[in-house]
Design a protein that fits this description.
Layout: H1 4-18, H2 23-37, H3 40-46, E1 57-58, E2 66-67, E3 75-85, E4 96-107, E5 115-124, H4 135-158, E6 168-173, H5 186-205, E7 210-214, H6 223-230, H7 249-253, E8 261-262, E9 266-267, E10 282-288, E11 293-299, H8 300-303, H9 306-322, H10 328-337, H11 341-357, H12 366-374
Parallel strand pairs: 3-6, 6-7
Antiparallel strand pairs: 1-9, 2-8, 3-4, 4-5, 7-11, 9-10, 10-11
Length: 376
């Protein structure tokens, strides 16, 4: 049981660290950002700087704020999200479950169902691959199934005559830049990078617009432009930009993006993106939803098509407006995907029951038994 009195005391001790006022820091960073935007030579040099700086490339003025218009036509949006039950050694088995939620929302159509909600579970024994059943493995598989679900949902829509002409976009939660694979072992990194790239290639081949939305992003790709300037391109001169150390892209964008506006499109130059084919290399832009600065990521083939960029920006903003700051379609997809406590107990109960039917060995640890008893 949590000792609330002690917790309050500990939080009070950390309050000064947790809740620092960085408004003056952001104002200073924004002034430098404006100076950088007007320096054409610096902007050219910045886009070819060492990738270790993680500075993007771009066309246009850094400070441009582009108005997001309302969706002009009926549209269909597909939201995909995933959840999982990790393998639990206390339940005596190595199997795990991945649950993918898919939501199709139609707007402006007078026929057909306006919403379709579904979820699909996938169960693994944990012995199917040499990569095993680690948390990394489960998470990597989950993202693969999320990409597949978007393609499957689009196929279902296109087979429906009454909705085949309505533009549909797949919206996912998270990033199209597979940052986490950089730190994984060679086998997992290359295996799943190849799979993800192949699936993103299918989206392009089938002309399926896809984007990912990141709420409250902490990324620093744009603000790194300022760090680069202060350090004069010296990656080791960290003291030079210590004055803006806590500034991220979202805090910077709040100074020049009004609600319903977005930035220009940037091309990520993160190291992992060198493994992507040019057509699906990740690009991104930020939008002011009215309640937060959100980040939208898209592949290059979409980034180079102004109409598709406008479609994704307008439909995502419309979804955020309907969802009080967060896309409705993703919130609903999460509800379809999430595996709650009773679902987890149900899953392991089924595993236990099946083990008894098969006369298999199945033993629950004393810890698991004690925790179950304590909650009854």
């Amino acid at each position: 049981m949590l000792d609330r009195t002690k917790t309050i005391s500990k939080l009070n001790e950390l309050a000064g660290t947790l809740f620092t006022d960085i408004s003056s820091m952001v104002r200073y960073a924004y002034k430098l950002f404006g100076d950088s935007a007007q320096d054409d030579l610096f902007c050219q040099q910045a886009q070819t700087a060492d990738r270790a700086w993680n500075v993007p490339s771009w066309d246009g003025n850094l400070k441009s704020a582009i108005k997001i218009t309302k969706p002009a036509n009926p549209y269909t949006l597909i939201g995909v999200d995933g959840s999982q039950i990790y393998p639990d050694r206390h339940h005596g088995v190595s199997c795990f479950l991945i649950n993918v939620g898919t939501v199709i929302l139609r707007y402006g159509s007078t026929s057909g169902r306006p919403a379709r909600l579904s979820s699909d579970p996938y169960i693994y024994s944990g012995q199917e691959s040499e990569n095993g059943n680690s948390i990394d493995m489960v998470n990597a598989l989950r993202q693969e199934y999320e990409f597949k679900a978007g393609i499957q949902a689009t196929d279902a829509i296109r087979q429906s005559n009454c909705h085949s002409q309505m533009p549909s976009t797949v919206l996912m939660d998270g990033s199209l830049i597979f940052w986490y694979l950089e730190s994984k072992g060679d086998t997992i990194r290359q295996t799943f990078l190849d799979r993800y790239i192949a699936l993103l290639g299918q989206y392009q081949q089938q002309n399926i617009p896809i984007a990912s939305y990141i709420s409250a992003p902490k990324t620093r790709e744009i603000s790194n432009i300022i760090r680069l300037r202060l350090a004069n391109f010296d990656i080791h001169a960290k003291d030079a930009y210590a004055a803006i150390d806590n500034v991220n892209d979202a805090s910077l964008c709040t100074h020049f993006l009004a609600p319903s506006e977005r930035t220009i499109v940037f091309a990520s130059r993160a190291k992992i993106t060198t493994h992507y084919p040019p057509a699906i290399r990740p690009h991104f832009f930020y939008i002011n939803t009215g309640t937060e600065i959100g980040r939208i990521e898209i592949p290059a083939w979409i980034a180079h098509d102004k109409d598709l960029v406008d479609l994704i920006a307008s439909t995502t903003f419309d979804q955020c407006s309907k969802g009080h700051g967060y896309p409705v379609v993703l919130a609903e997809a999460h509800e379809q995907a999430v595996v709650k406590g009773p679902d987890r107990e149900f899953f392991f109960h089924l595993v236990h029951k099946k083990a008894m039917e098969q006369k298999g060995r199945y033993s629950i640890s004393s810890k698991a038994v004690r925790k179950r008893t304590a909650t009854m």
